[in-house]
C-alpha cells in the first residue's frame, strides 16, 4: 500500500481530541466543587441547589467562572508561543518530537487533576492554573493539530493529500462526539479520579504510539 494511504497520525489526533473533550466537563465540575468547598461548609456544597443556598450558589458560579477563565488563559497564552517554536523546529528537524510534547504535557496536567480529585479537601483550586500552564507550555491541542496536519501533508502525495487531510480533520469531530459521552459515563461509574485517569491513559497511549509507530521524516 502506498504511504499516502497508510494510517499514520490519525490515532494521535483522535485520542488527543477524545481526551480534550472528556476533560472539559470534568474539569469544570472539579473547579465548581473545589470553589464551593473552599468557601462553604461541606453540607452546603452537597445541597447547593436548595433555594435556601441561593446566595452561596451565585458566589460559587461567579468564582468558578473566574477560575475557568484563568485556566483558559493559562492554556492559550503559552501555547501560542510554543506553537511558533515547535513549528520552526518541525520544519528543520522533523515532526516527531513536536508531536510528542502536547500529550506529555497533558499527562502531567492529568496527574495534577487526579491529585486534586483524590485530595479534594486538601488541594487548592489554584492548581488548575499550573495544570493548564503545563499543557500550554507543551503546545496544547493547537500544536497537536498543526503537527499532525503537517505530517500528513508531508507523507501524502498530491493526489491523496486532500482526502488524507479530510480524514484527519474528521478525527477532531469524532473525538468531540465521543469524548463528552465517554467522560460522562466514566465519571458516573467511577467518579472524577477515574475520568482523569482515563484521560491520562489516552495521552500515554499517544506517546507510546508516536514512539513506536510514527516515523520521523526529515523535511
UniProtKB/TrEMBL annotation:
Residues 14-219 form the Major facilitator superfamily (MFS) profile domain. The chain crosses the membrane at residues 7-27, 67-87, 99-121, 127-153, 165-182, 194-214. Keywords: Membrane, Transmembrane, Transmembrane helix. It is found in: Membrane. GO terms for molecular function: transmembrane transporter activity. GO terms for cellular component: membrane. It is a multi-pass membrane protein. Its main location: membrane. Gene3D superfamilies: MFS general substrate transporter like domains. This is Major facilitator superfamily (MFS) profile domain-containing protein. It comes from Penaeus vannamei.
